Amino acid sequence: MIPFLDLKQINLRHEEEIMQSISRFLQSGWYILGKEVDQFEQEFAEYCGTKFCLGVANALDALTLILRAYGIGEGDEVIVPSNTYIASILSISANGATPILVEPNIGTYNIDPLKIEQSITVNTKAILVVHLYGQSCNMEPIQALAKKYGLKIVEDCAQAHGAIYKGQRVGNLGDAAAFSFYPGKNLGALGDGGSITTNDEDVYSRLKALRNYGSHKKYENLYKGVNSRLDEIHAAVLRTKLKYLDDDNQKRREIADYYNAHINNELISIPKIEDDSPLSHVWHVYVVLTEKRDTLQRYLTERGIQTLIHYPIPPHQQEAYKELSSHVYPISEKIHREILSLPISPVMSIDDAVKVVEALNEYKENL
Ligand SMILES: *Cc1c(COP(=O)(O)O)cnc(C)c1O
């Protein structure tokens, strides 16, 4: 069986070092907002090239708090891709603002910059970009639009830790960015975790209070904040795992390169690369398109290859977003109907990638 992602093996590779970091945490006797979070914030800011980083409980909170820190709420509109994980959109609704869905490019799966401008109105306050599947969005035209209309750019980097667009890491391409350290992400904790990166000192300061009951000073509350903090134990483990992130991403690229070069079946479309630099993609998942997706998935399961679907139902067709159900997003709908995520991870062998490609190249629809 070729697993989609062997998470246990990913963490056990560093068992000794992870145990040491947990022991260091335990010996400190400090559990919430201490040295490990401080250090991790500095190290992750440095890694992303930003002035600031703040640990929070998860990426949904990170996105929600960023929009709130920019004062985005009732009556405001935020542009967001129609093809994303639901959390990107939930963060907008959570603030009482209106998500305006914009279609992706069918090849890269990322928001199509050419379709953004027609969706901008007097109420638009921000563009929430998602570097989906690990690939940086085509940011230059988006940055130009944000400048022209005075909009904030919020990056959802939950799938793209370490991706580099034109020499800069994601998380440093807009006004503020959200990262997830959910265990299955490219940089994963041993539970939930998240962070915010930004170069904006005002917003950093507001967010630092917002994540901690709205308080800078214990028992003095400036805002009606929330409790959304990265735990010390997760920060300690993440400091260890951050050291391996670039290597891990490189291993993912080797698998993706093999798939890109060898998948050769006219029934299956491979993903397109947005930028000519291989560093712009960290391959959180490797997603192909095929007309009879369920048939291909069943065929691969029979050949001992585990696949997943990211994601089966588009946001505008979710029960939670009934108000969007009259809208039609044909590209997004086609993507959700036809996508399949192949196995890829830093612990997958090229031998296994060879087997996946053999199976794909032998696939016929009438099997
Ligand atoms: C995982 C994910 C999130 C949410 O991250 P959590 O830390 O689980 O809240 C948000 N956006 C995208 C694109 C994701 O993949």
From TrEMBL:
Gene3D superfamilies: Aspartate Aminotransferase, domain 1, Type I PLP-dependent aspartate aminotransferase-like (Major domain). The active site is at 185 (proton acceptor). SUPFAM superfamilies: PLP-dependent transferases. InterPro entries: DegT/StrS_aminotransferase, PyrdxlP-dep_Trfase, PyrdxlP-dep_Trfase_major, PyrdxlP-dep_Trfase_small. The keyword Acyltransferase does not apply. GO terms for molecular function: pyridoxal phosphate binding; transaminase activity. CDD domains: AHBA_syn. Pfam families: DegT_DnrJ_EryC1. GO terms for biological process: polysaccharide biosynthetic process. Keywords: Aminotransferase, Pyridoxal phosphate, Transferase. Belongs to the DegT/DnrJ/EryC1 family. PANTHER family: 3-OXO-GLUCOSE-6-PHOSPHATE:GLUTAMATE AMINOTRANSFERASE (PTHR30244:SF36), TRANSAMINASE (PTHR30244). This is Aminotransferase.
